[in-house]
Specification:
19% of the residues lie in helices and 15% in strands. The chain has 129 residues and is an alpha+beta fold.
Length: 129
């Protein structure tokens, strides 16, 4: 298999519930990683162009879910499932999703913008809504 042009390192680190800065996994990163893998495969990019990999902590928990794009050296932050199509489209076109780029102030928790809330848990099938 050839080396791919880009690697997406999706932080799936999970901290205990109630940790003030939260974690990417609590904000849906595991599902985002799976959706990226599926979308890249569907677009025919997975085998030659882009690989979505899981990562442990990328040290921007407050701005998660976070994705490091390498070798380009930029980070996406506050990524949601709704952002997956735009990320895949940008990778196919050789561009970036500018609205998701983490600005320099987001790399310091004291100056970072507000975090995304953790998604609400879905009720179990057949359970109360």
């Amino acid at each position: 298999m050839p080396q791919r042009k880009r690697y997406l390192f999706v932080c799936v680190n999970r901290r205990p519930d109630g940790t003030p800065k939260g974690s990417c996994a609590q904000r849906g990163a595991v599902e985002i990683h799976a959706a990226l893998k599926d979308a890249l495969k569907d677009r025919g990019l997975a085998k030659t162009e882009v690989r979505a990999c899981t990562s442990s902590c990328l040290d921007v928990c407050w701005a998660g879910p976070a994705i490091a794009v390498e070798p380009d050296g930029y980070f996406y932050g506050r990524v949601t499932m709704e952002d997956v199509p735009a990320i895949v489209e940008s990778l196919a076109n050789g561009t970036r999703v500018e609205r998701l780029l983490l600005p320099s102030n987001d790399f310091d928790e004291k100056t970072a913008g507000p975090p995304l809330p953790a998604p609400k848990a879905k009720p179990a099938e057949g359970g109360e809504p």
